[in-house]
Specification:
2 domains; ClpP; seven-stranded mixed β-sheet; alpha/beta; 2-enoyl-CoA Hydratase, Chain A, domain 1
Length: about 300
């Protein structure tokens, strides 16, 4: 029951699909993706993805054995709340062999961390149910594919794209980076294809186009098994405001990374802001103040001109 006394109804995947004339496929969870021994680049969500993410969206109700992924994927320099393999592993270990639910509303983040979390979920002995509230983009969409049952909100989206990285160097460095990333794009195609039953060439095209799939399209293409009722989610405006303030800093960092190494970008932002702790939305009463963001935006524009 919600706070208003309304019952949250989750529409059964098969029933929802039948009502819309869509087909439902029985699927096994796809296999494990191998990670390289050494990762020299950061595979992240594009800055524009943060503009499509509403961080205020949360589940209307929650039962036991739930892991909430309502932030960026991977350890985040500007936040203490990112979703990491370590936190997921701790939660799953505490749940034992019980069935679990994964609640997702995330713009993605570090693809390599997402793959690691996906692999860990595949190892869990209980049933893994994924519920997408709001957005499962980039690395979060990979994690979602570990679900034996994937439910998506009526107004939610799943976004898939090619691996997007922050890298600095000469043409030889970029050629090496492109060669390094190609197998990961192919591996993601394989995971999506195994879970959805869709054609690999079609999936590769959707990734090339950076495709956002709404609930009906996600079910039609096999990226979800059913659609949740509209009252399955609520808005937490306080959490949303905090996340949006952090997003402004993250977008600024990624913009600067197009001109300089990531460590240098963080140092520059910290100098403008004060310290990186002060940039965290929850750290100081004035966090999220747009005044310094405007000054930093002017700095970025001058650097890129």
């Amino acid at each position: 029951m919600t706070a208003s006394g309304r019952r949250v109804v989750l529409i059964d995947g098969a029933a929802a699909a039948a009502a819309r004339g869509l087909r439902v496929l029985a699927r096994e969870r796809p296999g494990r993706i191998k990670l390289p021994g050494k990762v020299d680049v950061a595979a992240l969500s594009k800055p524009e993805v943060y503009d499509r993410w509403n961080p205020a969206i949360r589940a209307a109700e929650s039962g036991p054995n739930v892991i909430r992924m309502f932030d960026v994927i991977g350890r985040d320099y500007w936040s203490d709340h990112a979703v990491t393999l370590e936190s997921v592993d701790q939660a799953l270990t505490g749940f034992g062999s019980a069935d679990v639910e994964i609640h997702i509303n995330s713009p993605g983040g570090d693809m390599f961390e997402g793959i690691a979390i996906y692999n860990r979920l595949l190892q869990h002995p209980g049933k893994v149910t994924v519920k997408v509230f709001g957005l499962a983009a980039s690395a979060a969409s990979i994690i979602a594919m570990a679900g034996e049952d994937i439910q998506i909100g009526a107004a939610a989206f799943i976004m898939i794209h090619n691996c997007w990285v922050v890298a600095v160097g000469n043409r030889h460095d970029f050629a090496e980076t492109a060669a390094f990333l190609e197998p990961f794009d192919a591996a993601m195609v394989g995971v999506y294809a195994a879970r959805t039953g869709s054609d690999e060439a079609a999936i590769a095209g959707w990734m090339d186009a950076e495709t956002y799939m709404g609930a009906d399209l996600a079910v039609e293409r096999g990226f979800a098994d059913g659609v949740m009722g509209a009252d399955a989610s609520v808005l937490d405006e306080e959490a949303g405001a905090s996340a949006r303030a952090g997003n402004a800093v993250r977008k600024m960092e990624l913009a600067l990374c197009r001109s300089m190494p990531r460590t240098q970008a963080r140092e520059l932002i910290s100098k403008v802001k004060g310290t990186h702790d002060a940039a965290r939305p929850s750290a100081t009463p004035g966090a999220g103040d747009p005044n310094w963001l405007g000054a930093a935006a002017e700095l970025i524009a001058s650097l890129r001109s």
